[in-house]
Design brief:
By secondary structure, the chain is mostly beta strands. The chain has a single domain, classed as Sandwich (Jelly Rolls), CATH 2.60.120. Helices cover 2% and strands 55% of the residues. The chain contains one helix and 20 strands. Strands 1, 13, 14, 15, 16, 17, 18, 19 and 20 form a nine-stranded mixed sheet that branches. Strand 2 and strand 3 form a beta hairpin. The longest helix has 4 residues. It starts with a strand and ends in an 8-residue tail after the last strand.
Length: 239
């Protein structure tokens, strides 16, 4: 069963320097029907103006990852990490027992467009940690590349939850099939472009809840970039 959430149905936030679209309830946007899915709590589609950003603030007990689509995102945190995240990079900050951090547009001339995604961890109070990995376009072209996994195997980033995240790029005749284990939920988010998932057309910003997925076929892409979340069979995150 594929339950599609159209891009235009997402929440909106306009802070001048920040234009954000919220797949699930976040900040001042509240929708009782959109409180997350399984352990996936937040997908924010953020565009930040040049030299602007999120000042230092705190998190705890959350797995937070950033996926940059355009531009450069500068990160600093209380663990002593300083980095710049660019397209192809995936950043994972496990807040654990508590961390302070800031995220700013690294450019003074160009905007940055990125996804910020939160996954509820399976344990609380763990030691904070930071990871960043670059995935080449060829690793995602016409296929689904595992970028996040519980044990961080095969070059993926480690997450403290029974969740796996795949990224793929699809255009023209490129296609791939993901075999999903029985009794799992899947969430699909189209970061840009459009493609078909089991014959259903999804456009940029669209998402889809999928239960009892079985095999998922990704095809007929038009400059598509997609994230696929393989999740526990829970309806809502357990906070």
């Amino acid at each position: 069963m594929i339950d599609i959430r159209k891009s235009d149905d997402r929440g909106r936030a306009n802070h001048g320097w920040l234009q954000s679209r919220h797949t699930f309830s976040f900040g001042s946007y509240r929708d009782a029907r959109q409180q997350g899915f399984s352990d996936l709590l937040v997908i924010n589609d953020d565009r930040v103006a040049p030299a602007q950003g999120f000042g230092t603030h705190g998190h705890r007990d959350m797995e937070i990852f950033s996926y940059v689509l355009e531009g450069e995102l500068a990160h600093k945190d209380s663990m002593g990490t300083g980095s710049v995240i660019r397209p192809g990079d995936v950043q994972m900050m496990s807040a654990g027992s508590g961390v302070q951090h800031s995220e700013f547009n690294h450019s003074t001339e160009h905007g940055v467009h990125f996804l910020q995604i939160w996954i509820v961890p399976s344990e609380k109070g763990a030691a904070p940690r930071y990871q960043q990995v670059h995935f080449e376009e060829a690793q995602k072209r016409g296929q689904l590349r595992l970028i996040i996994a519980p044990e961080g195997h095969n070059g993926a980033l480690a997450v403290r939850q029974d969740a796996r995240v795949y990224a793929g790029l699809f255009d023209g005749e490129e296609a791939a099939t993901l075999e999903v284990a029985a009794n799992r939920h899947v969430y699909v988010h189209v970061a840009r472009g459009s493609l078909e998932v089991n014959g259903e057309r999804l456009a940029e910003g669209d998402g889809a809840r999928i239960r009892d997925a079985g095999a998922l076929r990704f095809a007929k892409g038009e400059n598509a970039e997609v994230l696929v979340f393989d999740l526990r069979p829970n309806e809502l995150p357990s906070m």
